[in-house]
Amino acid sequence: MPKVNLYATFRDLTGTSQLQVEGQTVGEVLENLIRLYPQMREELFEGEALAERVSVFLEGRDVRYLEGLATPLGPEATLDLFPPVAGGGLEGRFGALPPWLLERYLAEWGGRKEGEDTYALPGARVRFAEAEPLRAGSLVVPQLFVQVEGEKAQAWWARILLAASRGGG
Question: What is the rounded CA–CA span in Å between residue 106 and residue 114?
Fold first, then answer.
């Protein structure tokens, strides 16, 4: 049965950070999640479509770049659901910044690991997941989707931007 990791306000709505939810596609899993937690519908959907403000990742890849809600899932699949960033939050994609390097930066800066891809920093929380790689011919550049929220989000975002632009130097 697919695993669903919930972040930020989704954790508040469900009272948990992780669930096992039946379904053979992303859409089926989300519909079954809504059956369990009806308040999630307005957070996840706009009409019948996945809300633009919500990020849904399958094994680190944004489902919008796969088959959307029709993306098939195996029994061991992992979905990550990120709500919209609010209250001074920032989000973006970083090319060629691997997750392990971002985790190293966050730990060096005093970050405390809260979940698989979530760190708490003084005044901010950082969440990240691998995104669809950038492709140009035979060149493939991995990308990392990063969200930073909190009262000091701007300062931490600037620090992440600088570290990513320096390529670890």
Answer: 12
DSSP codes joined into one string, 69-96? GG-B--TT-EEEEEPPP-SS-EEEEEET
pTM over 0.85: no
Residue 111, phi then psi, degrees to nearest 5: -70, 145
List pLDDT tens digits, range 80-96.
888 765 555 677 788 87
Spatial distance between the Cα atoms of 74 and 156, rounded to a whole number of angstroms: 36
Least confident range of 23-32, 67-76, 85-94, 95-104 = 85-94
Q: What are phi and psi for residue 42, nearest 5 degrees?
A: -70, -20
Rounded CA-CA distance 70/25 in Å is 6
CB-based contacts of 108-114 (< 8 A; 24+ apart in sequence) = 109/159
The 3-state DSSP class for residue 151 equals coil
Separation of CA 169 from chain center: 26
